[in-house]
Amino acid sequence: xxxxxxxxxxxxxxxxxxxVSRALDPRARSALTDQVxxxxxxxxxRMGYRPNRLAAGLRTKRTKTIGVVIPDITNPLFPPIVRxxxxxxxxxxxxxxxVNTDNRRDREQGQVGVLLERGVDGIIHAAVERxxxxxxxxxxxxxxxxxxxxxxxxxxxxxxxxxxxxGIARMVAHLVEAGHREIAHIAGxxxxxxxxxxxxxxxxxxxxxxxxxxxxxxxRATRLNEEExxxxxxxxxxxxxxxxxxxxxxxxxxxxxxEAIREMGLSCPEDVSVTGFNDYDFLRQxxxxxxxxxxxxxxxxxxxxxxxxxxxxxxxSEGERRIVLPVEGVFRGSVAAPRATRSEPEQRAGVA
Length: 352
Known about the structure:
Blueprint: H1 6-13, H2 17-23, H3 34-47, H4 53-60, E1 65-70, H5 78-89, E2 95-100, H6 105-117, E3 122-125, H7 134-141, E4 145-148, E5 159-162, H8 164-177, E6 183-187, H9 193-208, E7 218-220, H10 226-237, E8 245-248, H11 251-263, E9 273-275, E10 292-295, H12 297-313, E11 322-325, E12 327-330, H13 344-349
Parallel strand pairs: 1-2, 1-3, 3-4, 4-5, 5-11, 6-7, 6-8, 8-9
Antiparallel strand pairs: 10-12
Helix pairs in contact: 1-2, 1-3, 5-12, 6-7, 8-9, 10-11
């Protein structure tokens, strides 16, 4: 059965082909009346019309596709970001091509190459490293790039990031208010902007609260996962001067710290308080409930999509280059006063 064309819909509705084309284009239909748009779209749906993206791409030099690069498909941080992206691009007639790098630079280079071969109109990159060499390849291809959640060293590349400094400051302040002075930090990898920015924020907040943080209370994770969180927490809690609280650079590191605390015969928060960053939806269901920093994941996705669409359609536009989204502290049961500051009855009762 031959495919339905714009001419077929024009013949059925009595409108000119150009009117039908505008009515079916989300960006062009605003010039038409609601009645015309409704009649055309209903007729197109009834007749089973599907736009020929390949033919349209040959005419416009666009494929109406956006590449989305994520570092770890199993990380619950990224599905809400992708959902936010799709909320913006789908009504505009774009579709996403999602690729996963597994936090490997060689895989990232290959996957970005695939996106460029497919002729994507723009790329939203959530897996960049600070000095990522793949940037040069994207630049040579002339494809608009926006990073989300992480940023590049190159300040000219637009980025949607969270307010890391405010989030870490909130966690340090909460731990200090609970009575902690011996606070350790599990930092993210140095090649990631989130790793160095949150470590810098931790140092700044510690200074602001006049905390003496020895260098051995800084543990550096090589990956942002539970295994590294467990390894780093074990090292910190095995010190001659162990911390009473651990501030982790993200929730997965914090969950690994939970595991290390249990394996060492300790408990959270009675022996060690723990905080994270990102606020995965399931955290409230895992005892004792992780105190963390909530980031607006869907908004991050939406803002990155809005920005990349603007760069695609207005390549010379000079908009904001780095958009910093506000964060929120979420206070649950993983923080309590350190044992040394509790009264003897409170310690026996396990009261924070």
